[in-house]
Amino acid sequence: xxxxxxxxxxxxxxxxxxxxxxxxxxxxxxxxxxxxxxxxxxxxxxxxxxxxxxxxxxxxxxxxxxxxxxxxxxxxxxxxxxxxxxxxxxxxxxxxxxxxxxxxxxx
Length: 107
Known about the structure:
two-stranded antiparallel ribbon, 6 strands
């Protein structure tokens, strides 16, 4: 997945968890979701948030079966999709999924 974060190419996943957010230009709740996920990223070591705009990357939408934005895929350290959240998530939902992943030892 080719992505840019803070002006630099993303070359690897988060040490423990990656929150892969699929957004689009016309999505009204994508920016709020991005702010939420960025705050989680800042509070958790080993977690990386990547926000991908799929407006001009329809092949990614097809590959990951993205039918709505925002959609968040929670990946383990190996890039395996552990969970999928469709629509604007609540903080508690994201935290629950992260805790489930870390308790299962999928680091």
